[in-house]
Amino acid sequence: MKITEKTITNNTSKLETAILADQINRHQQLLLTWECEKVETAAMVEQFVCHFDVPVVCIGSRVEFLFPLQSLKALMIHVQERWNNDRELLASLEQIQEHHQILWRAGRFTFKLNEQPIIYGILNVTPDSFYDGGKYQSIAEITRQIDKMVKAGANVIEVGGQTTKPGGFTEVDPQEEIHRIMPAINILKHDYQQIAIAVDTYKLPVMEAAIKAGVDIINDVQAFDTNQKLALMAKSEVGMVTMHSSRTHDYDNLTVAIQKFFEHNLGTIAAAGINLERVVLDQGIGYAKIADGYQDYAMMRNIDQLNYLHRPIMVAISRKGFGQKLFNLAKEDRLDVTLIAETAMYLRGGRVLRVHDVEETSQLVKMIDTINNSYWFRSTNN
């Protein structure tokens, strides 16, 4: 037996074709065909697939079904339990998994986003960041916070030396920014080699210093907008977080505008000779013309409209001002609403969660993944 992916044909109406394409591209569903040797075997396979609560039909010796990409690993586990001697079947599933794998190549690390989301911890070593400004100024404070985030499950720790918060911020000299971030980078390099090091900066000299210091990721809120930045990235292997910002303008169709922005931005990055597997997308929630307005909520909802680009998407909403806008919550009291909004975005495809609260976010991811991959079979030991 084997399982193959079915392609969309033009045998249906334009609307039906559009609906199916939407399921595959936006909702990350797989259209699969399970080819069996006998009709009797196909009937048994149909019953097996029904355990996954998906649309399924049996046509002779074929079983066709729509299946969520996020649950492919669960399917592989249960198939192996039942048909562990069918190497062709298992190999066909592995091939499908490999075809849809979304990689993020970031310096020393290669993350497989379909298999494991990224908990991306924020460490602002600034006096004025909107949430944690001034908290981590001494070496002892920085070390304690890094250790806390690592123990809580962070895969990446991002060091920020200048805020870009809404409502205005004070730009600091690149040398001052470098002076702020280097102690944290050195601690991470020396004591936490298993953690990817990111730096949040839009300044070329800071990027140069960070890359020379051995960081794995550069996060640029200006989307690597100059030839000099792109040339620097092309000479390195660091991961790149490229962000859409709309602080200077409004949109008619927000979704189309963001799609076109990232299509152009990715095209520019690729034209500079940079492997797009190094790139993560950030919609720029909190960077709208009207801070914490309804454009931000629309971007929380439409994050899955970027899934067709096949790049990891960052969820970067930790304790932002929507908590104050909707519920009049102080920044210290926004954890619950942050987790709720992060869950909504995670379910829509946001696989890189940039957060202040690593422990709680790790629990969120584990809980959602456990629910999404729990299918009941009588032989399951629970």
UniProtKB/TrEMBL annotation:
TM ranges: none
EC number: 2.5.1.15
Catalytic activity: (7,8-dihydropterin-6-yl)methyl diphosphate + 4-aminobenzoate = 7,8-dihydropteroate + diphosphate
Keyword Transcription attached: no
Cofactor(s) this protein cannot do without: Mg(2+)
Coiled coil residues, start to end: none
Presence of keyword rRNA-binding: no
One Pfam family cited in the UniProt record for this chain: Pterin_bind
Keywords of this entry: Folate biosynthesis, Magnesium, Metal-binding, Transferase
Domain Pterin-binding: 117-366
Pathway assigned in UniProt: Cofactor biosynthesis; tetrahydrofolate biosynthesis; 7,8-dihydrofolate from 2-amino-4-hydroxy-6-hydroxymethyl-7,8-dihydropteridine diphosphate and 4-aminobenzoate: step 1/2
Family according to the record: Belongs to the DHPS family.
Protein name: Dihydropteroate synthase
Organism in which the protein naturally occurs: Limosilactobacillus caviae
